[in-house]
Each structure stands twice: as structure tokens, then as C-alpha cells.
Write a structure and sequence with these properties.
single chain, 4-stranded antiparallel β-sheet, 8 strands, globular, 0% helix, mainly beta
Length: 100
């Protein structure tokens, strides 16, 4: 991200998550701020989802998510994960714990 990118704010921005073959968008207003942490717990398109965003520096954050019954058909490790918060986006590969 460039230094001119907008600040990360999951409370006012849509948060799009793509994990392998699964993708979802958490709408603006869904995250709650608790100190420095942003949390979400709810159901989107029949998938129970919990997410946590923690700012770790200027235009950087840590992200954790857990979902119950997402459609991960065809997803194998390592899994490509893309997180987009408003106009900011990042992609990485992780070793996911996938239960079938």
C-alpha cells in the first residue's frame, strides 16, 4: 500500500474476504470497535463468521477469521487469502485449518 492510501476503518468500510474458493463481503457498519480492535460476529449468506482486525502500524493490520460451513470445495493448502478493507487490499498465502 502506498503512503497516500486511505486509513483502514472496518467500521465504515466494506470488508471483503477471499479464502481459496470462498468469498464474502462484510457490509459497512458490521464491525464494532473495542479499543484498538475491530470485531465482527454474525451470519452472512448462511455462513457463521467471526473476524478480528487489529491495526499493527500505519496502513497495516493483522486479521483473523473463523467460519462455520463455508463452501471451500476445491481449496487446498497453501490457501491464497485476500483481504480488502475499503480501498486497501492485501494478499498472502497461509496454511489453513480446514474441517470437512
Amino acid at each position: 500500500m502506498s503512503s497516500t492510501a486511505p486509513a483502514i476503518n472496518p467500521v465504515t468500510s466494506p470488508v471483503a474476504l477471499k479464502i481459496g474458493t470462498f468469498s464474502t463481503t462484510i457490509p459497512p457498519g458490521s464491525f464494532k470497535k473495542n479499543g484498538r480492535l475491530f470485531t465482527f460476529a454474525g451470519v452472512i449468506n448462511g455462513v457463521s463468521l467471526q473476524a478480528l482486525v487489529t491495526p499493527t502500524g500505519t496502513l497495516r493490520c493483522a486479521f483473523a477469521a473463523a467460519a462455520q460451513q463455508p463452501n471451500l470445495t476445491g481449496t487446498t493448502n497453501p490457501v491464497t487469502v485476500t483481504l480488502t478493507i475499503g480501498g486497501n487490499s492485501g494478499t498472502t498465502s497461509v496454511k489453513a485449518i480446514i474441517f470437512h
